[in-house]
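Much of what follows relies on a compact textual record of a protein's fold. A record is reproduced here so that you can trace the correspondence yourselves:

. . .
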Amino acid sequence: MKPVIALVGRPNVGKSTLFNRLTRTRDALVADFPGLTRDRKYGDGRMGDRPYIVVDTGGIGESEEGIDRPMTDQALLAVGEADAVLFMVDGRAGLTAADQQVASELRKLPKPVFLVVNKTDGLDPDSAMADFYALGLTQVLPIAAAHGRGVRALMDEVLAVFPEPEETGEEEEPEDPDTVRVAVLGRPNVGKSTLINRILGEERVVVFDQAGTTRDSIEVPFERNGRPYVLIDTAGVRRRGKVHETIEKFSVIKALQAVDAAQVVLLVVDARDGISDQDLHLLGYVLEAGRALVIAMNKWDGLESDHKDWVKQQLDRRLQFVPWAKIKFISALHGTGVGDLFGLVERAWDSAFIKIGSNALTRMLEDITHAHPPPRSGRFRAKLRYAHLGGSNPPVVVIHGNRTDSLPVSYRRYLENRFRELLKIEGSPIRLELKSGDNPYEGRKNPLTDRQIRRRRRMMKHIKK
């Protein structure tokens, strides 16, 4: 088994910076801003031939009020499941009362705890560590996470307490190609994190009655009915004019990147507000990305019947451009309808990765054009000869023929709808690519024979007379 290493400490001591250094990624948001990380974030790392798992956590020890309480709970859960703990402190700020409080709890753990003194660049390491020996932790190591100094020596000390990988016989396993990656997207405070916790049956991500609680994209792998899933909790995306803080701008970028990394997007909408303009903007981004889509109308419980009728009418009116999207009315807080979401997600994933042979697709094309031939464009009519599958997520149907560029938009929409109906695609967009064959005689002149030249001369003389 890979050792699990948890990073804990006060806010803004450099835990996310060290997380990125150990995983050699930029997955964790980093800024000179306390309280940026709030949820547990997992990452894989390797030092030489020694693999490990790193858990980034939110800051603890400074307050027990407001959102700090669930952040502390998340950090304690990470400590409980870890094999080793890296207790990080700020070498420039010195020893604080919050550090002493955290250290008193960590000393009780029956697992190795390493005291990591960060931000020692430009300082004498011995002087920076002197005050922290009072915490009673024997293993004290200085590092500069931002520059990578001392990180290798730190990991050598940490990994030395675990068996060599040859003894465990563990090998890296690639991600299952059948893994369903689902990005949970929506505006702030619509219940995305609550929905993820309800699905997982545990308090995996921080939930608080405050817009903007989630700041980073959190990937949570799990298995349901023998099928692997990865849920991606994203930050709420507000209108661009309302985004002023630099941190929120990066959070929005990470949320939109999660859409590109996902295969199915679960768009969470607040049923109390109905479909807003921002929801439509997010829908447009999902369509441009070509991702399968499931819409969850959250907070449906407790609404008046008149308001429910108004919401349904609004859905029919404002979602006419995505008639294929599946809609489910749920309550993430009480669990109503949440279990039915997976049936829609699985059908959307299966539709996005549909497999069909070229012969069957060409026969479908023949049936479609026979029932409704392409309209004429001038003297000629486009000829659609054969089709094949050109891609997935979303499925791409490539149609070859002559004069395909003359097909009107209405007929292309007819082809798309008929293919969607015949292929039984649900919850996923479908794209058409029309390709025309090259004319082999285009640009070539046919040389005239002597007889044709004499006949042409006689005709020209007759015309002149």
Residues 246-261 form the longest helix (16 residues). Residues 4-168 form a domain with the Rossmann fold fold (CATH 3.40.50.300). The first strand starts at residue 4 and ends at 9.
